[in-house]
Specification:
With 211 residues, the chain is mainly alpha-helical. The chain is 86% helix and 2% strand. It has a two-stranded antiparallel ribbon with strand order 1-2.
């Protein structure tokens, strides 16, 4: 998901850069149109002067210059209309240029914001990679711990078996001890009459043990 977001952010940054270039092209075109419009205003001004001079010359010519005077008047009217239109176009171009400038600034800010977002996403991508690596290490450690626990459980079971066998042997030994104690208790010395004859001297009289 982070990689996909990063790709989308980079693509968005490229789109914003293209938009900035397009806005700059529009701005450059507006400047060129303004220059052409200024040329049209100059032409209109010069045409108006020529028409005015032509009207003066037609008035001097009298009746023979009436038709030329009408033409000069129409040319002058067209020149004035051209000048008015050029002035209006100039105002629109200036307004458009201001709007384009604002648009360029906004798009530029958007581009910088997307660039910052892209950098943050790259940081998040690095952190995600580190988290994934740490998770793999933890999984490996948990596997080793699990194996150790299984070994400990096996040893514990073995110890339990040994303890159980030892307990059985202890009980058997206890039983044997009781039986041996009973056998030992069943033996007792028999009553014997020892002679006090001096002939016996210090000879030892044997003792007979009977059950």
């Amino acid at each position: 998901t982070v990689d996909t977001t990063k790709t989308d952010a980079v693509r968005g940054g490229e789109i914003v850069k293209s938009a900035i270039e397009a806005m700059q092209d529009i701005k450059d075109s507006a400047v060129k149109i303004s220059e052409i419009n200024g040329l049209i205003e100059d032409i209109s001004f010069q045409t108006n002067l020529l028409a005015l001079n032509a009207g003066v010359e037609a008035a001097r010519a009298g009746d023979s210059g009436r038709g030329f005077a009408v033409v000069a008047s129409e040319v002058r009217s067209l020149a004035q209309r051209s000048a008015t239109s050029a002035s209006e176009i100039k105002g629109l171009i200036e307004t458009s240029a201001d709007q384009v400038e604002v648009g360029v600034n906004l798009v530029d800010r958007a581009g910088k914001a997307i660039e910052e977002i892209t950098n943050k996403i790259q940081d998040v991508s690095k952190l995600a990679a580190q988290i994934a690596e740490s998770s793999r290490d933890q999984a490996s450690a948990i596997t080793e711990i699990n194996a150790g626990v299984m070994d400990l459980d096996r040893v514990t079971q073995q110890n339990a078996g040994l303890v159980e066998r030892s307990s059985d042997q202890g009980r058997a030994l206890q039983t044997a001890a009781r039986e041996l104690g009973a056998l030992v208790a069943s033996f007792r010395p028999s009553s014997t009459n020892q002679t006090d004859s001096p002939k016996a001297g210090n000879a030892t009289v044997p003792m007979r043990i009977s059950a």
